[in-house]
Amino acid sequence: MAETSEGKKMGLWMSTSLVVGNMVGAGIFLMPAALAAYGGISILGWIASAFGALVLAKIFSKLSTLISDKSGGPYAYTHIAFGDFMGFMMAWGYWISIWVSNAAIAIAFVSALTVLFPILGENSLLAVGTGLSAIWFLTWINSKGARSSGAMQLVTTILKIAPITVVIVGGFFFFDIANFTPFNPSEESNFGAFVITASMTLYAYLGIESATVSSGTIRNPEVTIPRATMLGTAITTLLYVLSTVVIMGMIPLGQLEISPAPFADAMGIMTGEWGRQVVAAGAAISAFGALNGWILLVGQVPLAAAKDRLFPPVFGKTNKNETPFLGVLIGSILTSLVMLMNFTEGLVDQFKFLILLTTVCMLVPYLFTTGAFMVIMMKRKVPKTPWWPIVTLAGIGFIYSLWSIYGTGEKSVFWGFLLLMSGVPLYVWLKWRNREK
């Protein structure tokens, strides 16, 4: 369970690409269409969710400078602030949310490829094989060490950003401000539309914490992680907001609302059919890169918890490349099983619900991290300046996280609570097992 040696660790750009790559999945390529019904006011929703995300990014950045010697991100901070039980609960829920969400990302990858290879939409066996191949190829890449995974993440992040950037820059030459009239074409009030769009967009920022989770694999973490977290969140925010503005300015809202591929349509206006193919490839690469980054994290959270004897010891074992290979292997097996559910008749609805459910399990650690921030700052008596900036930062982060959880819906919150509680027997068993140690 040794720490990754310096030569095998990730630097600033790999760490930043981990943050950007994990936040920017395939969903961004559909978001303008989802927001089209609300028109220009959805831009204000993006800005509101971006503000909350940047506040959380700042909290994670500050915590990473205070606790640079411990991996696990939200788990580590919660464990230090609130003890074993809450630390375990955060690790349990976060771990489950990653391997379930990875199945959705793998399916999004296959879906994006169907534009380039229509046979994938007709042959479910071939589609399943493609999804499983992506999962296990990236599992192999991650087993080779942090730098291998980081290099893959850097390349795929550059490739996924490229077509988005082309649409943003080139789209302004095809921009029509009249598409933003009326500013709120929906039947909702301006405030109602603002709240709905802010709730819709906040999920796009899941992954802010990515660099903090794998701090043991990052070079000079007390400096690199804060920079990567803030830089990655800022880059992602610019991509989200600018791309939505440009595409809404290029495509009339009525047409955009029913578009299955808004980025491809925008590129088609600029370049013709070949541009649509480029965007389809970009969407596939985007999902592929996000899958790579989250497979890295599926081994890091239980590794950190296993070191504290709050997860089974098998998750703490590392290979010659200093990678928690058994943790990654177990995560990929579970991801493969969940992905297969989506190709089984009658289980599709349950799969979609699982994704929403695990979103709650990923948001709850954000909530506890804001509380942990205050507790750790008080314990370490860090500030010699007034407390009000710290309290304000934590307060905004707490409200944003709570609002995010509320936005998932009552059913998801209820079942998410039960999912978190399902880990209690494992916690009791671990405590019983460790009682004499």
What does this structure look like?
This protein has 437 residues and is an all-alpha fold. It has a single domain (6-432), classed as Amino acid/polyamine transporter I, CATH 1.20.1740. It is 74% helix and 0% strand. The protein contains 19 helices and no strands. The chain has helices spanning 12-23, 31-35, 41-66, 74-82, 84-116, 119-122, 124-143, 146-171, 190-202, 210-213, 221-250, 253-257, 262-271, 273-307, 325-341, 348-380, 388-407, 410-421, 424-433. The longest helix is centred in the middle third of the chain and has 35 residues, at 273-307. The model has no long low-confidence stretch (mean pLDDT 87). It holds the Pfam family AA_permease_2. Keywords: Cell membrane, Membrane, Transmembrane, Transmembrane helix. It is a multi-pass membrane protein. GO terms for molecular function: transmembrane transporter activity. Belongs to the amino acid-polyamine-organocation (APC) superfamily. Basic amino acid/polyamine antiporter (APA) (TC 2.A.3.2) family.
Write out key terms for the chains shown:
single chain; 437 residues; mainly alpha; Amino acid/polyamine transporter I; globular; APC_superfamily; transmembrane transporter activity
